[in-house]
Amino acid sequence: MTATDDQTTVRRNDDAGRYEVWVGDVLAGFTEFTPDARGRQRFPHTEVDPAFRGRGLAQIVVAEAMADEARRGETVVPLCPVVVKYLQQHEVPGLDVHWPSRVA
């Protein structure tokens, strides 16, 4: 199956605690979130199916997740290296980021 012509979409899946990136009707990857004791959203892990690597899908799902968190007024705690790198390289208007001491 070629997914190059398929639509790429990002969806928030609250039941699974993650933002998912879909290529057509195939789940291609996700970034997980979980609230901490202070109600901040921790992002510990991002994963893209090996069949879909090299297409920038990790960046796409993280970008949309961070934009959505900003719209929701959430504070994000980046723990996943993909999320950390994205936030170090991109300004997300309105996003409150709490940098853990080990990545700041």
Contiguous low-pLDDT stretches (5 residues minimum) are none
Overall structural class, as computed from helix and strand content, comes to alpha/beta
Q: What general outline do the C-alpha atoms trace?
A: globular
Total number of β-strand segments?
6
Continuous helix count? 2
* Largest sheet report: 6 strands, mixed
Mean pLDDT, all residues? 93
Helix % is 10-25%
Order of SSEs: EEEEHEHE
Strand order of the largest sheet: 1-2-3-4-5-6
Cα distance, first to last residue?
41 Å
| C-alpha-based Rg, rounded | 14 Å
Share of β-strand residues: 25-35%
Any overview of this molecule?
The chain is α/β, with parallel strands linked by helices and 104 residues long. Helices cover 24% and strands 35% of the residues. 27% of the residues are buried. The chain contains two helices and six strands. The chain has a six-stranded mixed β-sheet. α2 (81-89) links the parallel β5 (75-78) and β6.
